[in-house]
Amino acid sequence: MTVEVMVLGLSALLACAQLALAAAMANRQLGSSYLAGPRDEGVRLTGIAGRLRRACYNQLEGLVLFAVAVTVLTFADRAHPFTQLAAVIYLAARLVYVPLYAFGVRWWRSAVWTVGWLATVFILLWGLLG
Q1: Distance in angstroms (rounded) separating the CA atoms of residues 45 and 52
Q2: Is 80 helix (H, G, I), strand (E, B) or coil?
Q3: I want to staple 124 with a disulfide (CB 3.0 to 4.6 A). Which of 5, 68, 69, 93 is the partner?
Q4: Where are the domains positioned within the chain?
């Protein structure tokens, strides 16, 4: 298994952890009665619960692009130490992003997101163009 594929799996585990954390915080804010029901009426999560939910959605969106990049790289058989480093940088950025978003840290959160996005683009371009 390549480093990039392993990081993809770890990124999926991070998404699972974020989903569980966001659900726990939503349960705390809204109560299990609402969450167990049909949720016909939309409710807006606020504070840290809302930020964790948005960070989770952001992780899922980014994970799709990262998965495509790793898939292209793998099928092209173009794994390289640079792409391994980019994958690790992506995961590190995603790990740092969660608390930055949860605690409402401005600017740094966006900078860290950009680092992760650039790592994804790098891997995708390396896979496509070599």
Answers
A1: 9
A2: coil
A3: 69
A4: 3-129
b/e string for 89-104 if b means 16 or more Cβ within 10 A? bbbebbebbbebbbee
Give every CB contact of residue 40 below 8 A, 6+ residues apart in sequence. none
Contact in structure between 72 and 124 (CB atoms under 8 Å): yes
Tens digit of each residue's pLDDT (9 = 90 or more) over 59-75: 999 999 999 999 999 99
- Distance CA(101)–CA(82), nearest Å, equals 28
pTM of structure: 0.92
Q: What is the pLDDT of residues 66-106, one digit of tens each?
A: 999 999 999 999 999 999 999 999 999 999 999 999 999 99
